[in-house]
Amino acid sequence: MSMSDHTSQSKPFIRWRVLRIVVGLLAVFSLVAAACGDDDDATQTQPAADEPAPAEPADEPEPAPAEPADEPEPAPAVVETLKIGVIESQTSFCAPVDVPALAGIEVAADQINETGFEVGGTTYNIELIIEDGQSSNEGAVVALNKLIGDDGVDIVIGPGCGAYGAPGLGAIAQQNEVILFNSSPAPLLEYPDSTEFIASGEAQFLFKGEPKSGNAAAGQAALPFAFFDKEDIDRVYILVQNDDGGNFYGGSFGAYMESQGKTVENEYYDPTTLDYSGILQRVKDFEPDLFVYGYLIDPALAILTQALELDVSPRYYGYGARIDDATERAVGGPIGIPWMGLEYPRSLLYANDPDIAALAPLVAEKLGRDIQPGDSYAMYHYHYLPILVQAMQAAGTVSDTTAIAAALEAGTFNVGGVGEAGPLVFDQHSMNFPADGCLVNIDGTVECRTFPQPPED
Question: What is the pLDDT of residue 259?
Answer without folding.
Answer: 92
